[in-house]
Design brief:
The protein is an all-beta fold. It has strands at residues 2-7, 10-13, 18-26, 33-39, 45-52, 58-60, 68-73, 78-83, 92-99, 112-113, 117-122. The strands form 2 sheets. Strands 2, 4, 5, 6, 9, 10 and 11 form a 7-stranded mixed sheet that branches. A 4-stranded antiparallel sheet has the order 1-3-8-7, with no helix packed on it.
């Protein structure tokens, strides 16, 4: 089992930046990749970004490329999502996820999920 706890959400204005953190515990040695997803009001949960735990290979949704950066601190078992130039449409609950099966990030499946952290961007 892998436990995930997100933090760093909040209320910001359009154009501001925010950094989310996801702390992993438990069987983190089984983790191949970590991902961020988001679910806006009345919308489905969408993929945002992913990173492989060992090599640090990254993959992004087109909607966030150039604005968001995913990174990890292996020593602290923590993944970050740096969000710049935030827009009102970025408003959502952001979830961290962990996947244990090695595959291309575009085809990654995730086995463990955090509870989410709310990000609200006002115009």
């Amino acid at each position: 089992q892998v436990q995930l706890v997100e933090s760093g959400g909040g209320l910001v204005q359009a154009g501001d930046s925010l950094r989310l953190s996801c702390a992993a515990s438990g069987r983190t040695d089984s983790t191949y990749a970590m991902g961020w997803f988001r679910q806006g009001p009345g919308k489905e949960r969408d993929f945002v970004a992913a990173i492989t735990w060992s090599a640090g290979i990254t993959y992004y949704a087109d909607s966030v490329k150039g604005r968001f950066t995913i990174s990890r601190d292996n020593a602290k078992n923590t993944v970050f999502l740096q969000m710049n130039s935030l827009k009102p449409e970025d408003t959502a609950v952001y979830y961290c996820a962990a996947g244990t099966r090695a595959r291309q990030l575009a085809r990654m499946t995730y086995d463990y999920w955090g509870q989410g952290t709310q990000v609200t961007v006002s115009s």
